[in-house]
Amino acid sequence: MAIYNRYDMENVKHEILKKRALSAREQVIRMATDGGCFLGASLSCIDLIVYLYSEFLKIDMNTIDSIERDYFFLSKGHDVPALYATLSDLGFFEKQRLLNHLKTNDYIYWHPNKMIPGVEFHSGSLGHLISVAIGVALDIKIRLMNNKVVVLLGDGELNEGSVWEALLVANAYKLDNLLLVIDRNQFQANMKTESLIPLEPLESKFEAFGLEVYSIDGHNFQEIDETFQGLSFNSKRPTVIIADTIRGKGLPSIEEKADRWFCNFSHKEIENLIDELYGKTLKTELTSEKLIVR
């Protein structure tokens, strides 16, 4: 009989997470056609979302309406393809339904919709969902419950003053059941964050607002796992994890390309990109639509 130590079991778990994230990336890429999606930003946060739903959040299809469930809010709502792909992979709804992306007969479109199983709240207008999450976290405290509330924000979203106003409230009410995760991919639309409105030093900014701060590699499942599992949720203050990520992660042809935050590829380009995802060399130059903001 084979005997596995803890190190072996952790490695197996991380390999499963990698495979799940790879599958989710393929589904996200398939949504980047016939109208397109915010592909680059979705690929930067997908490892985090896969981990949260696979290993961290106390929620699944059977507990989706339970009063004891944990809550996840996707504040950077344009990255919802990553959430859709993860939810479908874990059985919240049929994976075939992803083919309805941007079709009028379904609710799967550019931003989260509460009609999709697993989506807690509509989002899209950046900087606002953290206030909703704080309301939920405060209600949980009042009811003396132990649910966790997790909010995923983009780094460019931190330019919204409403984020920092909300953090003042979270600290004042000692909401240690609240966890912020920052997708620090260094881009805001099609500009580098530090070229637009510099955010650094980000860690000290969060510390000044009373948060417990961690920084991790947002694509390293071992580091993600160790950090999330080490959180105490009893420090009398909110927590933030700054996850360093790569926009377009998994597709070298679009990684960290400023003009590839939104993509609308042809069907042939999609198949070529999926080949690239699985290690093949991209066959032709990408020529399809780009979304440019000046």
Rg from alpha-carbon coordinates: 19 Å
Shape by Cα distribution: globular
Please count the beta strands (DSSP E, at least 2 residues each): 9
What is the typical, i.e. mean, pLDDT? 90
Quickly give the structural class: alpha/beta
| CATH class bucket | Alpha Beta
Quaternary structure annotation? single chain
Largest sheet: 5 strands, parallel
Total of domains: 1
Helix amount? 25-40%
Number of helical elements: 9
Strands of the widest sheet, in order across it, are 1-2-3-7-6
- CATH fold assignment: Rossmann fold
Strand-residue proportion: 5-15%
The CATH superfamily is known as Thiamin diphosphate (ThDP)-binding fold, Pyr/PP domains
CATH architecture tag: 3-Layer(aba) Sandwich
What's the SSE pattern? Answer: HHEHHEHEEEHHEHEEHE
Short description:
By secondary structure, the protein is of the alpha/beta class.
List the helices and strands and how they pair.
Elements: H1 6-30, H2 39-56, E1 71-74, H3 80-89, H4 129-142, E2 149-154, H5 161-172, E3 178-184, E4 187-188, E5 191-192, H6 193-196, H7 202-208, E6 212-217, H8 221-229, E7 239-244, E8 263-264, H9 267-277, E9 289-290
Parallel strand pairs: 1-2, 2-3, 3-7, 6-7
Antiparallel strand pairs: 4-5, 8-9
Helix pairs in contact: 1-2, 1-3, 1-9, 2-3, 2-8, 4-5
